[in-house]
Specification:
about 180 residues; mainly alpha; 8 helices; about 80% helix; globular
């Protein structure tokens, strides 16, 4: 699943940008230069947000509603290496698709809402899942505006560290 996200998710974004905008593969992957300071700040932001989100998800309102990621993480019995690999795949593949691709045409707000909705967390038929969506929606906006202001590597770092921190927390909590 991680390799599919890493290798296949970016393809529609690249193909669209290439044919409509003339974007080269190099420009697609390296739209912004790597900056260690921005990357490390992104890691810190992702970890802090994940810790806060995990605390919120332990509120009683979530007791009878296991989130999809809880079930997935618990069923996979991930090692730390597995969690890091899946987090990197999602961070890179999804940010290339959503931030470099979708956001270029639809802007931060629509892309961010779509990003959360496509993960199943804005569900009009299950208000508890939508509560989780409300928790992660600001993170999605942060990814979008962070990409605009600080570049792709910031968004990748935030996304990767957020996922990794939650994978580790969910594995330890066995919620």
């Amino acid at each position: 699943m991680g390799l599919v996200t890493l290798l296949l998710f970016p393809i529609p974004a690249f193909v669209t940008l290439h044919f409509l905008e003339g974007t080269t593969f190099h420009d697609f992957l390296f739209s912004t230069p790597f900056d260690w300071d921005v990357f490390l700040i992104g890691i810190l932001v992702g970890c802090v947000y994940a810790i806060a989100a995990n605390k919120l998800m332990q509120l009683p309102v979530f007791d009878n509603t296991p989130l999809k990621i809880d079930e997935l993480v618990n069923s996979l019995n991930l090692t730390i290496a597995d969690a890091l690999f899946l987090s990197l795949c999602a961070g890179i593949g999804e940010e290339l698709l959503f931030r470099v691709g979708f956001q270029h045409y639809f802007g931060v707000i629509l892309t961010s809402v779509f990003f959360v909705a496509i993960h199943g967390y804005l569900n009009p038929f299950n208000w508890r899942h939508s509560l989780y969506g409300i928790i992660v929606l600001p993170l999605s906006f942060l990814l979008g505006w962070g990409y605009e202001l600080l570049g792709l590597w910031f968004a990748i770092a935030v996304h990767t560290s957020y996922d990794f921190t939650l994978f580790i927390a969910f594995s330890k909590n066995k919620r």
